[in-house]
């Protein structure tokens, strides 16, 4: 349990240092949604008749 609490303390200290940056999860979600929208638009385009 001591290792887990130490890891949490280190993670919280790093989070306060990097508070000005965008979370990797937010960036990943934005990238995923962007790619999904791009895929949908690509599938909607008719490439000939």
Shape assignment: rod-shaped
Q: What is the number of domains?
A: 1
Poorly predicted regions: none
Category by helix and strand content: mainly alpha
What is the rounded Rg? 20 Å
The helix content, as a percent range, equals over 70%
The portion of residues forming beta strands comes to: under 5%
- The number of E-state strands comes to 0
Number of helices: 2
| Through-space gap between termini | 64 Å
- What's the overall average pLDDT, rounded? 78
Order of H and E elements: HH
Largest sheet: none
Layout of strands and helices, then pairs:
Blueprint: H1 2-17, H2 24-44
Describe the fold and architecture:
By secondary structure, this protein is mainly α. It has one domain. The chain contains two helices and no strands. The longest helix has 21 residues. The radius of gyration is 20 Å and the shape is rod-shaped. It starts with a helix and ends in a 5-residue tail after the last helix. The model has no long low-confidence stretch (mean pLDDT 78).
């Amino acid at each position: 349990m001591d290792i887990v609490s130490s890891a949490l303390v280190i993670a919280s200290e790093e989070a306060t240092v990097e508070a000005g940056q965008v979370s990797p999860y937010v960036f990943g979600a934005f990238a995923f949604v962007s790619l999904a929208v791009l895929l949908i638009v690509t599938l909607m385009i008719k490439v000939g008749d």
